[in-house]
Amino acid sequence: MSASSSTSQLIEKADAALKAGNLKDAEKLYEQVLTTSSAGNAHTTDTSIQQQHLRDQETALVKLGEIYRDQKNADALSSVINQSRAFMSSTAKAKTAKLIRTLLDFFTSIPDSYDVQKQTLTDNIAWAKAEKRIFLKHSLETRLVGLQLETHQYRPALALIDQLLTELKRLDDKMILTEVHLLESRVYRGIGNMAKAKAALTSSRTAANSIYCPPLLQAALDLQSGILHAEDKDYTTAYSYFYEPEDVNSLLTIKLATKYAQMRDVESMRAIARAHQERNLSEFEKALRDYRDELSSDPTIRSHLASLYDNLLEQNLLRIIEPYSVVEISHVAELVGQERQGVESKLSQMILDKVFYGVLDQGRGCLLVFDEPEGDNTYGAAIETLEEVGKVVQSLYAKTVQIA
User: Fold this and answer.
1) What is the DSSP secondary-structure string of 300-356?
2) How far apart are CA 38 and CA 35, in angstroms?
3) Which pLDDT value is given to residue 45?
4) Nearest residue to 70 (alpha-carbon basis) of 110, 13, 99
5) Half-sphere exposure in the Cβ direction for 90 (13 Å, CA)
6) Is the pLDDT at 37 greater than 60, yes or no?
7) How far apart are CA 225 and CA 304, in angstroms?
8) Which of 3, 14, 191, 333 could form a Cys-Cys staple with 29, CB 3.0–4.6 A?
9) Is the Cα torsion angle 13, 18, 24, 30 positive or negative in sign?
10) What is the pLDDT of residue 74?
């Protein structure tokens, strides 16, 4: 029996064991494929057998990665990636990059795996550098920057970005250059440097214009554009990249969106949209509690939801106090369903911002609401008159000097 047929049979047995739920047996069989393939391939000159060995080995690596991903075993997944180096040394560089990206993507489903993933990336970057696999090195370094961004390690991320940009500009690799500039924009936004965040985004878009930009990368560019415009409170432009809460329900009826309609991320948007449409603060707060992970994990979403909640509270307060000239603060708090102290603080802020005119009488625990004062133009008119008189005096003085 040839080594090729042997490994193919092992793959079939491993797949059957995996389907039956015998993970330990499947794991051992896939590992056996790796060792058998390497041994059997050492002395053969048959190209087809060699290729079959490589295909079997690649299948075994990916299957092992899937097993450890499902088991949430980050250390074992890291071992598989490091183990794959022997296989990658005998394959095409493009295939190597695709395989290692596939294996690294499995970390996404494993919680609290940042440290293991970071060490795995660092080790493989060093290996790619030693093997002079420059494209793979850049790809792994770009992923490491993304990981540093997720863990708010902005300083090392910027240092690695500077190094990457120097190398990429020399190689003129537009695709990775687009990704790195986009990451640079996100890092600068993370540290609050909006000017450099916009400049990096512009550089990313410039690089993307000269290549075919994959849909996911284009979506990431548009997302960052919308975020930066929203940070500047340029909501008109941001709206061209995003949608308002009122649009959520209509968007979810589109045929392409129906298969995602029951996902928690989508349900959270629907809950927020419903609460906003009904101007219901209690429903808004309930949505924030029920979908805490979906709505509070991202700082951008959290920030804008806080602003939306503040606006919603303001609108409710204005509607409640509108018919009154004097109203107890406790009554307003009861109607709006909030703590008295928080309502009092918000009303005070609204008065200072001149959202409405009034005063808080804390002794009586009341809010006094005034009509909007009519503009008095007397002062402005007096200033204008004095300015005109000044011009006349200057003119007369000039004529007097000429006569003299």
Assistant:
1) HHHHHHHHHHHHHHHHHHHHHHTT-SEEEHHHHHHHHTS-HHHHHHHHHHHHHTTSS
2) 5
3) 52
4) 110
5) 16
6) no
7) 15
8) 14
9) positive
10) 93
Q: What is the pLDDT of residues 12-25, one digit of tens each?
A: 888 888 888 888 88
Work out the pLDDT band at 176, boundaries 50, 70, 90.
Answer: very high
How many Å apart are CA 31 and CA 62, to the nearest integer? 11
Question: Strand, helix or coil at 180?
Answer: helix
Give the pairing of strands 366-370 and 357-361.
antiparallel
Tokens of 270: 């629907």
Burial (CB count within 10 angstroms: exposed 0-12, middle 13-18, buried 19+), residue 402:
exposed
Structure tokens at 196: 């450099």
Say which range, 93-97, 174-178, 328-332, has the weakest mean pLDDT.
93-97
Per-residue tokens: 234: 């340029």
b/e map 348-376, b = 16+ CB within 10 Å: eebbeeeebebebeeeeebbebeeeeeee
326-328/357-361 β-pairing: unpaired
Distance of CA 284 to the CA centre of its chain: 22
Q: How far apart are CA 3 and CA 55, in angstroms?
A: 13
Question: Rounded to an integer, what distance in angstroms lies between the CA atom of residue 188 and that of residue 224?
Answer: 12
**Lowest-confidence segment of 64-68, 184-188, 301-305 by average pLDDT:** 301-305
First to last CA, the chain: 125
Question: Residue 236 is encoded by which pair of tokens?
Answer: 């008109």
Q: What is the pLDDT of residue 94?
A: 67
More confident residue, 109 or 172: 109
Radius of gyration in angstroms for the set of CA atoms belonging to the chain, rounded to a whole number: 32
Task: Classify residue 73 by burial, with Cβ atoms within 10 Å: 0-12, 13-18, 19+.
Answer: middle
Strand-pair partners of 357 = 370
